[in-house]
Design brief:
The protein has 301 residues and is α/β, with parallel strands linked by helices. It has 11 helices and 11 strands. The strands form 2 sheets. The protein has an 8-stranded parallel barrel, surrounded by 5 helices. Strands 6-7 form a two-stranded antiparallel sheet.
Length: 301
């Protein structure tokens, strides 16, 4: 069943720079049948944008990165069914117990609509400014996820790791979703990360957009799920299709959507589009949401 998601990156630029108006616009996405909304995270930005590993970094230094969980709480208040996600929260920049509390609170406020995307980011300067060691970011992420799961299910809870230690801790509220909040990882598909996702996660948020490459990575993830006794069909994968532009350089929505069937065939379970690329202003947003939701019918879901 293919689902559809909206990425909020840059959307305030289509609403006169007013992010509060973007929050209100999520009512439209909710009513149109969009399955998920996703927001990206940076706590601060360093000036070494050349370190970005995926080509030219798409935003200037003064671009506003709204805190994701705060923004999603506001969206939760004006919507009823759309799921609330991140793409991704840089997990290690938050204390594990604080992240567990923030996510549990958001899940309660939204009546069980949270899916968190977690990653480690790419810039050392962001870690330095946050007072978090860059060198142990993956260990910190692993232990953070384990602590979240623990606090969402046990009290008192004790944990002793390399970066997190706690003894007989009580953390309430807990998520209202049975089994806790689904965790998707936005990580490169290295062998270690494949095992990490299969061990600790429920889904994957890849940067890869080529169906032939994506299919191989998803196959490995499904194999890793099966090796752990998990249903490989339960793996969720959210993919942003490659943007296709017209000859004049403007984004072409229909041409971009034409690539979706190949992504679904490769194993994508959710397709995410960024309306900032396709909408000229608020007047285009309703039509965009309706076209995105229609994609579900076209895929037979």
């Amino acid at each position: 069943m293919t689902q559809v998601a909206i990425g909020l990156y840059g959307l305030q630029q289509r609403f006169g720079g007013d992010f509060a108006a973007v929050v209100e616009a999520m009512r439209i996405a909710d009513e149109a049948g969009v399955d998920q909304v996703s927001i990206t995270d940076h706590v601060v930005m360093g000036e070494n944008l050349a370190a970005y590993p995926y080509g030219q970094f798409p935003a200037p230094l003064d671009f506003p990165w709204y805190e994701p969980l705060t923004a999603l709480a506001a969206i939760a208040a004006v919507t009823r069914r759309i799921r609330l996600s991140t793409g991704v929260v840089i997990g290690p920049l938050r204390p594990a117990v604080l992240l567990a509390k923030q996510l549990a609170t958001l899940d309660v406020l939204s009546r069980g609509r949270v899916t968190v995307g977690l990653g480690v980011g790419w810039q050392k300067e962001e870690y330095d400014a946050s007072g978090v060691p860059w060198e142990e970011r993956y260990t910190r992420l692993d232990e953070q996820v384990r602590v979240c799961k623990l606090l969402w299910s046990q009290a008192p809870a004790s944990f002793e790791g390399r970066t997190v230690k706690l003894e007989r801790i009580h953390a309430w509220p807990r998520p209202v979703q049975p089994g806790g909040i689904p965790i998707w990882f936005g990580l490169a598909p290295t062998e270690r990360n494949v095992q990490r996702i299969a061990e600790l996660g429920d889904g994957w948020i890849p940067m890869e957009q080529r169906p032939e490459k994506l299919a191989g990575h998803i196959a490995k993830l499904r194999q890793a799920f099966a090796a752990r006794g998990r249903d490989p069909g339960s793996l969720q994968v959210r993919v942003v299709p490659k943007l296709v532009c017209r000859d004049d350089g403007t984004p072409d929505l229909e041409a971009t959507l034409a690539g979706v069937p190949d992504l679904v065939a490769a194993g994508a379970t959710m397709i995410e589009l960024h309306p900032a690329a396709f909408c000229r202003g608020p007047e285009d947003f309703t039509g965009f949401c309706e076209r995105l939701a229609a994609l579900k019918s076209a895929s037979g879901s």
